[in-house]
């Protein structure tokens, strides 16, 4: 963390001690991660700790692993009904390999046997189709907005309830 | 996994053994998670294993924790420049508490001391502002699409390179 920040003061209304301006460091715009040359217009908060990548790239990587997980779920559900033998083989492979790294899982599955290779190719196709056609991106955004509001309200309400209860007991 | 699936055959061109139709189970549409009464029109793949929730809700929950992580990063970077004492306090708290569950982290931070409470409220405000204003949702989608294409191509290319090399050696 080598730089100062662009502080959206309108959003941060909490009273914190006065900043020590003599410690302020050179301006480093958040746009360093984007290709837009909008140094001056950028009003975004500076997010450190992502190196050359962006928070969006980090989130996309996590979603990518999640899509592989979903694709495996879809394929196993399909196989369970239509092809019990392949289902058993995939379940057995799943018991031995972690799905945390989706690409590594698929790479290993491909190399297990020719039958496993077919399953791996199917998972690759399903995750691409799921990501592009089935996954509801707008819904994801809507749910995330709703979740942050709900969680913030709930955390503050619980805290107030707890502290007013304590004061009541005094 | 109690049901059969809606199989987008156009997307799944891989030759798998013929389905055993006698094992097919009752139709259960993917739309059970959405509010749309489009049983017949739904062409989405059935995703099992999310209970009453949806994959979108699961992904939103993960993003929610990620936004808390980002908000903590933003606030610590701000404090490092402007308020070294609060920075030290937050870093010390971070060394003792996991950020895996963002809401739990904030709840604990609120209850640590009145000064920590101010930091917690600031983190709540920043994560909401970040999620709604700064995070580039379109970019996330674009990067995820790009990632799935790139990973699929790369996995298949590596496999073909490896196997053709083996055949060449024979």
Distance between the termini of chain A: 44 Å
Number of strands of chain A: 0
Shape descriptor of chain A reads elongated
Would you tell me which CATH topology of the largest domain in chain A applies? Non-ribosomal Peptide Synthetase Peptidyl Carrier Protein, Chain A
Element-by-element helix/strand order of chain A: HHHHH
Oligomer: homodimer
Classification by helices and strands of chain A: mainly alpha
Note poorly predicted spans of chain A. 1-39
CATH class of the largest domain in chain A: Mainly Alpha
**CATH H-level homologous superfamily name of the largest domain in chain A:** Chaperonin-like RbcX
Q: What is the count of distinct domains of chain A?
A: 2
Rg calc of chain A: 24 Å
Structural summary, described in words:
Two copies of one chain form a homodimer. With about 170 residues, chain A is mainly α. Chain A contains five helices and no strands. The first copy, chain A, folds into two domains: about 50 residues, no CATH class; about 80 residues, Non-ribosomal Peptide Synthetase Peptidyl Carrier Protein, Chain A, CATH 1.10.1200. In chain A, helix 3 runs antiparallel to helix 4. The N terminus of chain A is likely disordered. Chains A and B meet through helix 1, helix 2, helix 3, helix 4 and helix 5 of A and helix 1, helix 2, helix 3, helix 4 and helix 5 of B. Chains A, B: Pfam families: RbcX. Chains A, B: GO terms for molecular function: protein folding chaperone.
Summarize the structure.
The structure is a homodimer of 170-residue chains. By secondary structure, chain A is mainly α.
